[in-house]
Design goal:
Helices cover about 10% and strands about 55% of the residues. It is built from five helices and 15 strands. A 14-stranded antiparallel β-barrel has the order 1-2-3-4-5-6-7-8-9-10-11-12-13-15.
Length: about 375
């Protein structure tokens, strides 16, 4: 029996991830050794490789993730759209379901106490399905119906500890966003110029490891978190207040409160801001009353949402964890533009707030390895 290529790819990523889980654990979410407090007092050994170096993680944080599989769904989202009547006109409908599938994988490129590099990959596919045929009479909804909006990306993270108290953290990411395999003229599949779909983002932090339970960093993020490309200040605040309670935050993008029930079960509550920008080929023929859709060969869809959610993570096997999420999503933007540089909306759409649910499976190093 012939195995689908997608399954081959997933199995290959899984095997690579399992091989590198132990090293990745020390890079993606490095935990402080037992003698961190002594080292941060300045009593450090002479051998550089035996020193304890600062990092953003704190005691009590969840396990490192080598490979992540995620499915997310938001049902029954109402949508209204407004545009110049001479161009597109107005429309309304209901998104019966909004589906998101995601795969992430992380592997260490260089793993030394005083310098760490982590390479990450991600693949995301998002789909909009509308409820009634009447909704599909509006050009934007017809354009989005069952269309695969994809995000394929790679990122490089560098952690450079200065000593036991200070560190630099730098991350750069490149993504191809949109329906970049769709031929707008013939409905066939071919690869468009990659530069048209490339979106880049970066972040930089200078941090202080004040104690094994408290890490603070200040810096900036550059990307599409708030819909369009922008740069804004950011703050890392990771702190464990007791054996059960802690906070993990990269403000303003994400804040969550953590409750450690035990080593195998963790609860989280908080919010996250998510921003996406997709380049979409206009494959609809010109229609009466909608010349702008026919004239524009591409559109850019910018989506920004704020989601408050509750999450639980549970270990089911020494290397396997599962997670479930439930929350409420507020959509700030769901707008169409004629290009990635344009700030003038072609279509101003509003998605009503709606519940959102997700399930997740991820691989992680066994606890006994992390304690070595």
């Amino acid at each position: 029996m012939k195995v689908p290529y997608s399954l081959h790819l997933l199995l290959s990523v899984a095997c690579a991830g399992l091989v590198s889980l132990r090293a990745a654990a020390q890079v993606v979410n490095p935990g402080p050794p037992a003698d961190s407090a002594r080292t941060e007092q300045g009593d450090q050994p002479a051998d550089m490789d035996k020193k304890v170096f600062a990092n953003p993680s704190v005691l009590g944080m969840g396990p490192s993730k080598g490979i992540v599989l995620r499915y997310e769904r938001a049902p029954g989202v109402g949508v209204t759209s407004v545009s110049d009547p001479a161009l597109i006109g107005n429309g309304a409908g209901t998104v019966r379901r909004l589906n998101l599938n995601e795969i992430k994988a992380y592997a260490p490129l260089w793993n030394r106490p005083h310098l760490k590099f982590v390479l990450g990959f991600n693949y995301t596919r998002q789909q909009f399905n509308f409820t009634d045929p009447g909704s599909l009479s509006y050009p934007l909804y017809q354009l989005l119906e069952d269309r695969n909006l994809k995000n394929v990306g790679a990122q490089l993270l560098m952690l450079r500890p200065i000593d036991g108290r200070k560190y630099f953290l730098f991350r750069v990411k490149g993504e191809l966003n949109g329906d970049y395999s769709q031929n707008a003229d013939e409905g066939k599949y071919r690869l468009q110029p990659l530069r048209d779909y490339l979106r880049t983002s970066a972040e930089f932090f200078y941090g202080w490891k004040k104690s094994p339970r408290y890490s603070l960093g200040v810096g900036a993020q550059f990307g599409y978190t708030f819909g369009r490309r922008s740069i804004f200040p950011a703050l890392i605040y990771n702190r464990t207040f007791s054996d059960q309670w802690g906070v993990e935050a990269i403000f303003p993008a994400r804040i969550r409160v953590r409750y450690n029930l035990n080593e195998k079960t963790l609860f989280y509550g908080g919010y996250e801001v998510q921003g996406d920008s997709y380049r979409i080929n206009v494959s609809l023929p010109p229609q009466s009353g909608t010349p702008a859709v026919g004239d524009n060969r591409v559109l850019e869809l910018r989506v920004t949402s704020l989601t408050g959610r509750l999450r639980v993570e549970r270990e089911v096997l020494p290397v396997l964890w599962v997670a479930a999420e439930a929350g409420w999503r507020y959509y700030r933007n769901f707008d169409a533009f004629t290009s990635s540089r344009s700030r003038v909306k072609l279509i101003d759409s509003k998605l009503r707030s709606a519940p959102a649910f997700a399930v997740e499976v991820f691989l992680t190093p066994p606890r006994r390895i992390l304690k070595q």
